Amino acid sequence: ETLFSDIQKLTLINGEKIPTLSEVVSVIPRSRTVNVELKGEGTGSRVYSLLQDAIDDSDYLKRNIVYSSFLRKELDDAKASVPDGRFAVLVRESNFDWKKRVSEIDPWSVDFGVDDVTNEQVSYVQELGKKVFIFTVNTKEQFIEMAKLGVDGVFTDFSEMRQIVQETVKMDTL
Q1: Which among 49, 104, 99, 50 is positioned nearest to 72, based on CA atoms?
Q2: What is the pTM of this model?
Q3: Which of 97, 76, 163, 173 shows the shortest CA–CA distance to 132?
C-alpha cells in the first residue's frame, strides 16, 4: 500500500507534483461538472469533507460534483454525506442486478462500460429519467456507436476525439 506522504514526494515527467483532489477541483471552472469516482474502501464517507476544504460553495458540491462508484457501500456513505447530491451507479458488466441497485440508490445517472452497454439498457435508464454515460470511449467508431445509441455523454482518455467525431456525426452531448 502506498502512503499519501509517498505520493506527495513523487514528481511527474514535466517536474510537476501529483495534485490532490482539493487542488484539482479548486481550479476547475464552476460551470463544469466533475465526476469523482469512489474507488476504495472509506472514500464515500470522506470525499465530501475533502471537497468542502477546497470549495466553500455547498450548492456547487451538490449540483456539479457527481459521486460515482461500482461499490454500493461507498455510494451509500457518500449519499449520507450529501443527501441531495448527484450520484452515478457504475456498471461494467451485467453480472449483478444493476436495475435493483438503481432503484435502491436513485442515482442521477447510470454509467456503463463501452463494451457492455446495450440499446435496451440505455432506453430503460432514460425512461426512468436518468442520464446514461459511457466509459471509456477512445475510438472514433465507439463515439459514433454511442451517438447512435443516444447516450447522454461519454468519458474518454482523449479529449481531442470530441472534435474529430463532431466533424463526422452530430452529438451535442459529447
Answers
A1: 104
A2: 0.87
A3: 173
- SS3 state of residue 34: strand
pLDDT digits (tens, 9 = 90+) for 129-138: 999 999 999 9
Through-space distance between the first and last CA atoms of the chain, rounded to whole angstroms: 36
DSSP state of 70: S
Chain CA centroid to CA 110, Å: 9
Residue 138 to residue 159: CA distance in whole angstroms = 9
Closest by Cα among 147, 149, 153 to 132: 153
Q: What is the largest CA-CA distance in the chain?
A: 48
DSSP H helical ranges for the chain? 4-9, 21-27, 43-54, 58-63, 72-81, 98-105, 119-127, 140-149, 161-166
Using an 8 Å Cβ cutoff, are 143 and 154 in contact? yes
